[in-house]
Amino acid sequence: MPSLAAEQAAVSLVRRVTRALNRRVSDLVALLFHHKSAGSLGAVAGFAIAVVFAWKFLRSSPGRPRRSAPKRHPAAANAAIDSAASDAVEPVGDAGKLITQQIVAKRLSGCRKVTCQLLGVVFEEKTPEELQKHATVRPSVVEVLLEISKCCDFYLMETVLDDKSEENALMALESAGLFRTGGLMKEKVLFLQH
Question: Per residue in 101-112, pLDDT tens?
Answer without folding.
Answer: 788 888 888 788
